[in-house]
Amino acid sequence: MTWWHGTSLVLGRGLREQLRSKTFKIVTGVLLLLSIGAVVVPRLITGGPTTYTLATVGRAPVALTTALGAAARSADFRTTYVERPDEAGVRVAVQRGEATVGLAGDRMYVPERTAGPFPGIVAQSLLRIETLRVLTDLGLTSEQVARLDSVRPPAQVFVASAQDQGRANVGYAVGLVLYLALLFSGQVISMTVATEKASRISEVLLAVLRPSQVLVGTVLAVATVATLQLLVLAVPVLVGAAVTGSSWLPAVAAPDLALAITWFVLGFCLFAFLYAAGGALVDKVTEAGTAVLPVTMLIIAGYMLGVIVVIGNPSSAWSVAASLFPLTAPLTMPIRWASGEVPVYQLALALLLTALAGLGSIWLASTVYRRALVITGHRVRLAELFGRGGGAGARRSR
């Protein structure tokens, strides 16, 4: 039996158990409902374009309805009109909420609240109509008036802290998704390892397989389930945003997407095996959460550094250090990379250091896993893991 064949057997067994569990079904169902709700609820609340109502004495002038129609198309709102016989009727319509704005002669009635930008739009349209009339009365030809009317204000360019908003969104998303994935799946990994140790299943597996095969297969099984749950959460949101044309879903360059996937894999590999090692240290399943608390605190600290320090000042010494240190780089470098101020050599160095730390994590976890699984009856002490005799001493402690 090859190493990969044995690992695949553990992976298949782990997937079957995870997918059949009630916890997986409940969590996946909740994630699916949350994802669908994130797409449907905002649409139900907004209910499409905002509608404003204009009350006028008699029929609204054609020039005004034309101007408001052009403004509505550019600003994505709808305008309806109500007619009243006199100025008093227009005022009452606004007071009763039957109209957003009332127009009677040279007076415009506006409610104290909830009018929004519509009064300004109406006033600007009336000013434009009157300006064109005055210019025509002064003798300007229709071509000259049209040229004046075509003058537009300078285009607005929104400037963000990031040079590329698409890259920024990817960077922030990588940090958040990796943070959530590690917190949830890390606990599952440690609990799985602790359960197998407490029930002596691991001893049965180790009778025919290597410890590294059992360890890697278990981690890959949980990682696969976590990825499926992330897809259940993300796909409906992304599809809904693409169909509705949401502006928060910008085009993302393929290199940035590939870099995001790389950081996710490196970060998950780095911490997932540490969670597995922590689960092997305990004798009771209820102690697993306490055993992996240092790893959890490290993940939380890394994410807080990214949110508080890196976003606030990507070029500071603390930001640079946090994005290069292997145990915090997967959570901070993607966010710092979003600022567009990271030299390529620092990105390459962070990737290299994190990859080496990931290999070290696998080696450390394999060593702890191999020696800790055979120690039962009490919580494993460091002296039993790394003292003289290693596994032999551990076996004698049983």
Automatic annotation (TrEMBL):
The chain crosses the membrane at residues 26-45, 170-193, 214-237, 257-278, 290-311, 347-365. It comes from the Bacteria. Its main location: membrane. Keywords: Membrane, Transmembrane, Transmembrane helix. Residues 163-365 form the ABC-2 type transporter transmembrane domain. It is a multi-pass membrane protein. It holds the Pfam family ABC2_membrane_3. It is found in: Membrane. This is ABC-2 type transporter transmembrane domain-containing protein.
